[in-house]
Amino acid sequence: MNRTCSALFFPDRRRLSLAVGALALGVGLSTAACAGSEGHVIPPYAGPAAAGPGPGPSAPTETAVVAGGCFWGVQGVFQHVKGVSNAVSGYAGGDARGATYDAVSTGGTGHAESVKITYDPRQISYARVLQVFFSVAHDPTQLNRQGPDHGTQYRSAIFPMNAEQAAIAKAYIEQLDKAKVFPAAIVTRIEPDRPFFEAEGYHQDFMVRNPTYPYIVYNDLPKVEDLKRLFPALYRPDPVLVAGARKAG
User: Fold this and answer.
1) β-strand partners of 62
2) DSSP letter for each residue of 201-235
3) What distance in Å separates the CA atoms of residue 235 and residue 128, rounded to the nearest whole number?
4) pLDDT at 103
C-alpha cells in the first residue's frame, strides 16, 4: 500500500473513510495512489483433485467460504466472477452469539469477516475460486490485517466445506509458498468445521450500493479492476447481487 495511505490506520473503517475522503479533497490524491493495487495472476493450482469445471450428468451448486479483510471488497470481487451465483458477506470462525458486526469488530469473538460464495462447478472450480482469492481479492501474506484494517477479524482464512476443499487449500498454499510466488510466506489459515453467519443487510452489496464511498474507492474498486485486467475470461461486468440471487431462488 502507498505510504500516504498506510499511515491512515484507524480501527474503525468508517472513520478511515472520512479521513481518506478529507485527505483526497485536500491534497488531490489519485485513486490509484491510495489503492496500492498490486494484484497479479498467481499460478493455477496444480495439485491433486485439480480437475477443472466441465459438463456432467449433474452439477450441484457448491459453496466456498473465504476471509480476506473487509468483506465489502471480497464480496465485490466475487460478484463479478462468472459462474458465481451469489456472494454473501458474513462472519465465520466463531459461534452464533457473537456473530454481529458490533461484536466482531471488537476482535474478541473469534470470527473473521468472511464471504460465502455460491458457484456452479461446471463453470468454475474451487481451485479457480482460490486462485482469484489469492490473486486479486486480498494479500495473503498480511497477518491479521488487510490494508487499513487491523485485528484477527480481518485475518486471511479459508473455511473449507469438506475434506476435499481442505486438501486443495492446503496443497495450493504449499505450492505457492514453495514457488515463492509472494515476497513473504502465506499466512492464510485453513479453518474447517466453522459455521458461516450472514452479516447484517446493510453490509450486503455494499460496493455496488456505495461506489463513491471513500473506503470503497481507495481499497476495493481497484480489486475489481484487477479482476477485469488479470482474469478477462472470468470477469462479468454486471455483478450478481444478493438481493437478485434471493429473488431468483
Assistant:
1) 119
2) GGGTTHHHH-TT-HHIIIIIHHHHHHHHHH-TTTB
3) 13
4) 98
Catalytic residues: 70
Domains and CATH numbers, the chain: 3-41+58-248 (3.30.1060.10)
**pLDDT for 110-120, tens place per residue?**
999 999 999 99
Distance, in Å, from the CA atom of 185 to the CA atom of 203, rounded to the nearest integer, reads 31
Q: What's the pLDDT tens digit per position in 27-71?
A: 333 333 333 345 789 999 998 876 566 555 456 899 999 999 999
Q: What is the largest CA-CA distance in the chain?
A: 59
The x, y and z cell numbers of residue 213, run together, are: 464511498
For residues 204 and 103, is the Cβ–Cβ distance under 8 A?
Answer: no
Question: What is the Cα–Cα distance from 82 to 48, expressed in whole angstroms?
Answer: 24
According to DSSP, the residues that pair with 66 across neighbouring strands are 115, 158
Contact criterion met (CB below 8 Å) for 198 and 245: no
Q: How confident is the model at residue 143 (pLDDT cuts 50, 70, 90)?
A: very high
Provide the whole-model pTM.
0.84
Cβ contacts of residue 15 below 8 Å, gap of 6+?
Answer: none
pLDDT value at 213 more than 50 = yes
Instruction: Report the 10 Å Cβ neighbour count for 25.
Output: 10
Quote the mean pLDDT of the chain: 85
Q: Which of 137, 155, 135 is nearest to 145 (CA)?
A: 155
User: How sure is the predictor about 212, in pLDDT bands with cuts at 50, 70 and 90?
Assistant: very high
Q: Phi and psi (nearest 5°) for 66?
A: -135, 160
Q: Which residues are CB-neighbours of 122 under 8 A, at least 6 positions away?
A: 53, 54, 55, 56, 59, 83
- In which residue are the cell numbers 431462488 written? 249
